[in-house]
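Troubleshooting log. The previous structure file for this entry was overwritten by mistake, so regenerating from the original sequence record. Sequence copied from the archived sheet and checked twice against the printout by T.R.
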Amino acid sequence: MEKAEAAKINVEKLEIKDIDFSLLGNKEELLLLQKLFRFPEEVELAATNSNPSRLVNHVYETAKTFNQFYNRHLVISIKNGELTKARLALVEAAGIVLKRGLNLLGIEVMEEM
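Regenerated output below.
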């Protein structure tokens, strides 16, 4: 029953003000956050220097970092709904950054597999 309750959290209905991001603090979460925050700077540097490989590398490293986070930590926690909200927001942000990065590189992204 608790797992079903936790799964009902809809990331689209989450508002930033309702999320306690201080709950994100393990190594993988912090590394992923760093990659996400660096995305605008990497896009600008890639464009300024006419170096799309810089963006390719950043998107690849972000995807790799996300994979490490996702493989080591449960996103949906039956014991901690607030942590679930924070991790769902992190997953959503990673998806947005990866999709934008791939789109900038001219790679179409599937919505679902």
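The chain has one domain: 2-8+21-104. Archived copy saved in two places this time.
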